[in-house]
Amino acid sequence: MTADDWLAALSAELRRRRIDPAGPVGEAAAHLRDSGQHPLEVFGPPAAYALAVVAGLRGATPEPRRPSGEPRLRATGITKRYGRRTVLNNVDLSVHAGEVVAMIGANGCGKSTMLRICAGLLSPDSGHVRLGGTVGYCPQDGGTSDFLTPDEHFVLVGAGRGVGRTEARARGRSMAAALDWAGAPQARQSRHLSGGTRQKLNLILGRLGDPDVLLLDEPYQGFDNGTYLDFWQQVWQWRDAGKAIVVVTHLLNELDRVDTVLDLTPGGVR
Fold it and tell me: Residue limits of the ABC transporter domain (predicted)?
């Protein structure tokens, strides 16, 4: 890769993330010209350096903050067993408006089960859930119909939210564009979409109707780095708009992006 190729790749990565490349690319070119070094030695791969530029321009990650809004989700004493195996044992969770909670823990500790209980898709053996507002749910996998196009998904889910056909399509397409969804969302049946694109569709469907509580089960599966960054920018925007958000994750480096952490690992700190 020549310096010109690297600069062109950096410019493309920045444009994809909706950043004007003129300043960053000009500064990088000037440094390379003065130093005589190869860009991979100085800056690393173009995509990685683009992420660093975006983080610097947008202020990296917001500081976690104490929620000031009203409680939107309260789960108290949640216990769930499958046969003789106790998956959740007396778990409490409280999420306020304007708060992002990360739910973490080892595989099999009940993260997805807890989220499904909070979404009303699964009943606990004991305990209860109280909601203050509407709920949107994005599963880790599944959640879409193979033989429906994305537009048809938007219309179907929008109808359940009281959103008309035209508005549901418009909202769905707008949210698709915000996640760098290439091509026309209405063009293909979902069975022909890649895993990452189907997960974008899941995330959009969870957001249709502007719910007050968002329950997201590893929603970025299959996303590339640019879309992953866009996802977290949207999470912070939703938080600023007063949404209560729960994100199930196994990536501990994400914890500086949230306000509160619930560790479901037995003996974990909450």
Answer: 73-270
